[in-house]
Amino acid sequence: MAIKSKLPQVEESIFSVMTKMAIKYGALNISQGYPDYDTDDKLKELVMKSMREGHNQYAPMAGVFSLRKAIADKIKFLYNKDVNPDTEITITVGATQAIYNAISAMVSSGDEVIVVEPAYDSYVPTIQLNGGIPVSYELNKDDYSYDWDELRALITDKTRLIIINTPHNPTGKVLDAEDIVELRRIANDFDVYFIFDEVYEHLIFDGKEHLSALKYPDLYARSFVTYSFGKAYHNTGWKMGYCIAPPVLTQELRKIHQFNVFSVNNPTQHALAEYMQDKNSFLHLNSFYQQKRDFFNEIIKKTRFIPIKCEGTYFQLVSYAGISDEDDMSFAKRLIKEYGVASIPVSPFYLNRTDNKVIRFCFAKTEELMSEAEERLVRV
Ligand SMILES: Cc1ncc(COP(=O)(O)O)c(C=O)c1O
């Protein structure tokens, strides 16, 4: 049967390709973006409690009110911004569904969306499913900084959205004050909207501040800002997230949300609402992950790989240009087969498969696993 595919160019994701290979060759998997340690027992108990209390039927479409209120309180505390839980916060199935909803709400056939590359893998197919045209903007290849003139030059009458991710997967790049000035200029000069993917808001290092779009009224007025509980609370498998957007944008987002999921896991929402009351549940994350980044960087220093500065997220890019001139896909596969370490090549994060001889590791792993990887990486 010949089926007309809506996404003919989509192949098996690079994450499943590398994970399958890692299993086949018994390699250490320090590639995929999830922790190899568990979520807090206290949070698991709260989910059980919530189920026992009978929160087992559909939650309200926008999300359980106590959770939306807890999020509003957190945003006031972190970013000194008042958001209305009724009209500006929607609980979603991870950040992925928040992003899907936002793109679907805004993008129609022929609309252009500027995607900053290397980019998280859900953006481009979601744009294409909605008939939109992804327009690639590639970060500077040496330090992954922005050239804002270059990005502005891509904006046309058809540009509907610009997707910004900070802290940025896979590069670890974090927007600074000058970048925000440029973004605010764009918001004032053009009739475009933004998705700010801020799932790594708490994973930011060396005293750097996360400059959320929520802090700047002119940016926020045109933005969907997306978050993930999975990244914050070490439970990516629960697929819980949320989207914050001004009321007019939230109204459109919920029109999509209502029909692609209607509402999100009810007992988990009640549990998260209670868990978030303790601010330590998110305040310690910077130092927790900075320690892991530093531990992993000490390992990389002993190898021939060159680390690229990681300011946030739990990913570390390394250049292997001094080791081999193979393309990144072949190199990453050889690393699994010959050295027993799984990584992610970065070229699949680009529409044009740009190959800068860089691979990605994830340091959301136990020190034991990273140390085991050290023994193998120093031999490369
Ligand atoms: C940049 C970025 N955005 C969104 C997501 C998706 O988050 P979630 O697992 O909550 O859907 C991820 C997950 O890896 C990510 O790295």
Characterization of the model:
The chain is α/β, with parallel strands linked by helices and 380 residues long. It folds into two domains: 121 residues, Aspartate Aminotransferase, domain 1, CATH 3.90.1150; 225 residues, Aspartate Aminotransferase, domain 2. Strands 2-8-7-6-5-3-4 form a seven-stranded mixed sheet, sandwiched between helices. Helix 14 packs parallel to helix 16. It starts with 13 loop residues before the first helix and ends with a helix. 46% of the residues are buried. The structure holds pyridoxal-5'-phosphate (PLP). Pyridoxal-5'-phosphate (PLP) binds next to helix 5.
CATH fold-level assignment of the largest domain: Aspartate Aminotransferase, domain 2
Biggest sheet: strands, sense, closure? 7 strands, mixed
Count of discrete domains: 2
- Which strand order do you get reading across the main beta sheet? 2-8-7-6-5-3-4
- Assembly type of the chains comes to single chain
**Class derived from helix and strand content:** alpha/beta
Query: What value does the Rg take, in angstroms?
Result: 21 Å
Number of helices: 16
Give the CATH superfamily of the largest domain. Type I PLP-dependent aspartate aminotransferase-like (Major domain)
Query: Which CATH class of the largest domain is shown?
Result: Alpha Beta
From N to C, what is the helix and strand string? Answer: HEHHHEHEHEHEHEHEHEHHHHEEHEEEH
Distance between the termini: 47 Å
List low-pLDDT spans. Answer: none
Give the CA-based shape: globular
- Beta-strand residue fraction: 5-15%
Total strands: 13
